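Q: Can someone sanity-check these two? First one:
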Amino acid sequence: MTTLPTARRRGAAVPDDVRPVRVTGPRVARLLDEVEGADAPRRTALADAFWNEVEERGTPPVEALDGRPGHRAVTFLWRGHRATRRVLLSAHHLTDRGRPAGSLLERVPGTDVWHLGLRLRADHRGSYRLVADLSPKEPVPGPDGLQQRLRSLTAHAAADPRGRLSVPTRWRPADSSVFALPGAPPQPWAGRRGHVPAGHVERHRVAGAAPIGDRDVWVYLPPGSGRTDVPLPVAVVCDGDMWFGRMGFGDTLDALIADGALPPLVVVAPDAVDRCTRWRDLGGREPFVAFPADELLPWAAGRRPLTTDPRRTVVVGQSLGGVTALYAALLRPERFGNVLAQPASLWWRPGVPAPAGAEPAVYGTPWLAGRYACAPARPVTVHLDVDLHEGAMVDHHRALYEVLRPAGHRVTYDTYNGGHDYACWHGAPAAGLIRLLGGSTTPTDTHTALATSATPAAPTAPAVPAGSRAAGAARVGATAPRKRRAAQTPPGPHQRRGTP
């Protein structure tokens, strides 16, 4: 049993029951037992039978582990051929981009089955990509040569050809595959429901002052919005090109409104454009805060009746967009009364260069937490989400929470088990918007205690023959599962989680 090398992250250690551990899943372990000592035709037949099962069930296989009801064995698979030299897994927070050799799949001897099994807590959701090295040349001798070859290979990684679920990726033409374990938070509003009334998504070019300039902006109008003069709640969402251009977030909003989980609202979402523009705009940048506050929202209000009440206005962002959302409420609380940051890149500070690898170190209080600490309390409601694999970022979010709450801000904080990617974020804005806007025109004046992620009860593991390799592989130790969250589904309109 080994812990898979994951990205080095300063600060809070990843909880032991969350950290990925390399294991051999029961089904692959059985195949290893069966091929041992078998001749070539028998090995081929066994591998064919294995792949037939995989085609029927999809990848990656998720299996119960003997003695670990709160965990699963997740096996990433690749069907190779004679030219396959090695196969690499790339997965958010489960593998280390700087040391990719630690994430190579292994081959079942004498077969075309390549595999890498991980023990993961049963509430994990994440995305992954795979790539095979077919080069006839060996890398430069030595570990550095192999690492360099694999790092260049990751640019060609793509979705699992046998995966059932996928998610778009930023700045890449190929999607990533998605897996969600049984206890992962549900995403009941993701995807299109054909029977619900559909809102209208438009794309406009909106004039903006320098340095932002003119910007493409996506606008979501709820069903029936053209037949009312009542000012509607409004959300400003960073990264509109992802949320509406690739993720189909309008379908999620349609479902939320149809279920009564959200009131009809208007969403405006400026494009991020490209990497350089996104880095220039997002974070603690005053010009990008002024753009939605002084130009974008007044422009949108000229097309549909929009509220000017900050209590019915929310700004939403992930990663650097999360910093932007928090900074907008700090600078312009009279316009932005609700913040949804899922998670925020709180390592950001003025002057920090764009990270080429791991996030820059933060010593002491994060810059944005320090800004809030020095400012008077604003009538702002904030919700923070952070991934338990984020290391130092977990510390940063806790530090910001501890600044906001004593100062009198309305703040909630939650953790989740997954990747820093849209596989997890796809469902997060729905739950967050419900928390901030659902069921009431004014936010509730409560706080939520620091939440811990849940490990759900798992089905009983299937019987494994005693003494087999599978039995040994399944016994990887046991720890008590973490306490279950108070709510396993996003709260409904009148189910706000919180304690005074």
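And here is the second, same format, sequence then tokens:
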Amino acid sequence: MSNDKFPKDALNAINKKVGKPITENQIKQIAGNVKPSTLTDEAQLRQLIKQVAAMANLPVSESTVNDIVNTVKRSGVNANSLETLMKLISKR
């Protein structure tokens, strides 16, 4: 993720959905470690999903992780779209 500000509307939507304040810096910290290979390497993707879930304080079952991994593989979510990953997690 670049040094640009995380879109406020996305941050507000995420915070509203998870019911816990998540800061822009928390998102940038995780996003800073995301590389294009993170979303194509299943082990890295699983680790990222678990990191995002922990940050949002949302329990994520292995079944949900599998669903998200399959969705990411099918949809081709890109590394610049951590917001999309957070939305997938918070839908569960």
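A (reply): Looked at the second one. Residues 42-55 form the longest helix (14 residues). Residues 66 and 75 are 14 Å apart (CA to CA).
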